[in-house]
């Protein structure tokens, strides 16, 4: 069973962290080829997604520029999973932790009874997220919160904001290029975000992509995980980043295995169940030292 595709750290992030000047030059070439200009004032700030929804981005920021080049889709696996799951699972509550520009949360329409919550720590992205929300057909059902999702409510979290590539902003580490701003962001738990909601008979869909802080987010939604009858989730798993947040990888996998059936994508984008795996078994199975992949979790 080939799983090589799951091992590659995202090309965009790897290039940006290791070779920011080279990567910026490559992005500029892509922009020039597509729009015939590098003049920021002449670049669009809005993308029409394949679903016909609109996504607003900052054309002066490299991840925003890549979204322009890629027509709003840089994570095709996530987008495909999200749209398919909304249509088939018909969630009644949705939580997107780590919204970024919103290419996931704004990728599709939602049932009229669905409540949608988005959490993003990077204040620089919020104006673009709000613009996208205001033109979305389900805008009255969508709540956007600027906070750092964690296992602690109303704390202060150090947050490293990468103004040049928003995808590497993180609370667990400063990108190696050190072109960052250090912010203090108030923390929130997903349990508190959904306080007052009747959880037991809901169908919850969530996404967590927070550069290594995934375990803390899950700890902060432990009440919901225990009480909600039906849950499906999409979690980024990057062993390097998770370790930088001082999280024990086996403890993280053990937590997931306690409540969920856990699946990982193989090289053909098929899902392989790994519910019984320890981290050592995972890396032995994959033949690698570090793992970057996406996990699908389904409540047992």
Tally of separate domains: 1
CATH class: Alpha Beta
Strand order of the largest sheet: 5-4-3-9-10-13-11-12
- Which runs of at least 5 residues are low in confidence (pLDDT < 50)? 1-9
Number of strands: 13
CATH superfamily: Vaccinia Virus protein VP39
The number of helices is: 11
**Strand residues, percent:** 15-25%
**Distance N to C terminus:** 25 Å
The helix-and-strand class reads: alpha/beta
Helical content band: 25-40%
Query: Which fold name corresponds to the CATH topology?
Result: Rossmann fold
| Cα-atom radius of gyration | 19 Å
The profile of the biggest β sheet is: 8 strands, mixed
Q: Give average pLDDT, whole number.
A: 90
Shape: globular
The topology string of helices and strands comes to HHEEHHEEHEEEEHEHHEHHEEHE
Q: What would you say the CATH architecture is?
A: 3-Layer(aba) Sandwich
InterPro entries: FkbM_Methyltransferase, FkbM_mtfrase, SAM-dependent_MTases_sf
Keywords: Methyltransferase, Transferase
GO molecular function, one term: methyltransferase activity
Domain Methyltransferase FkbM: 96-256
Describe the model.
By secondary structure, this protein is α/β, with parallel strands linked by helices. It has 11 helices and 13 strands. The protein has helices at 11-18, 20-35, 62-69, 76-89, 126-134, 190-193, 214-219, 222-227, 239-244, 249-259, 279-286, and strands at 46-48, 54-56, 93-97, 115-120, 142-146, 148-149, 156-161, 181-188, 203-208, 230-238, 260-265, 271-273, 292-299. Helix 1 (11-18) packs across helix 2 and helix 2 runs parallel beside helix 3 (62-69).
């Amino acid at each position: 069973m080939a799983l090589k595709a799951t091992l590659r750290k995202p090309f965009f992030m790897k290039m940006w962290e290791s070779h920011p000047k080279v990567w910026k030059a490559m992005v500029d070439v892509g922009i020039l080829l597509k729009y015939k200009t590098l003049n920021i004032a002449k670049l669009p700030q809005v993308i029409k997604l394949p679903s016909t929804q609109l996504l607003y981005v900052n054309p002066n920021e490299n991840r925003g520029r890549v979204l322009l080049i890629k027509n709003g889709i840089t994570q095709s696996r996530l987008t495909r999973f999200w749209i398919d799951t909304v249509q088939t699972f018909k969630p009644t509550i949705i939580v997107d932790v780590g919204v970024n520009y919103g290419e996931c949360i704004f990728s599709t329409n939602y049932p009229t009874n669905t409540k949608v919550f988005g959490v993003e720590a990077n204040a620089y992205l919020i104006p673009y997220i709000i613009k996208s929300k205001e033109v979305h057909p389900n805008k009255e059902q969508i709540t956007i919160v600027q906070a750092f999702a964690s296992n602690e409510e109303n704390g202060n979290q150090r947050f490293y904001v990468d103004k040049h590539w928003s995808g590497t902003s993180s609370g667990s580490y400063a990108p190696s290029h050190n072109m960052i701003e250090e912010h203090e962001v108030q923390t929130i738990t997903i349990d508190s975000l959904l306080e007052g909601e009747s959880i037991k008979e809901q169908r919850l869909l969530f996404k967590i992509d927070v550069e290594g802080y995934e375990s803390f987010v899950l700890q902060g939604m432990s009440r919901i995980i225990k009480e909600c009858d039906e849950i499906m989730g999409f979690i980024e798993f990057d062993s390097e980043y998770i370790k930088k947040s001082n999280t024990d990888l086996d403890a993280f996998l053990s937590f997931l295995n306690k409540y969920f059936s856990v699946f990982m994508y193989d090289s053909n984008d098929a899902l392989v169940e790994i519910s019984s795996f320890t981290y050592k078994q995972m890396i032995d199975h994959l033949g690698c030292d570090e793992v970057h992949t996406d996990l699908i979790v389904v409540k047992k």
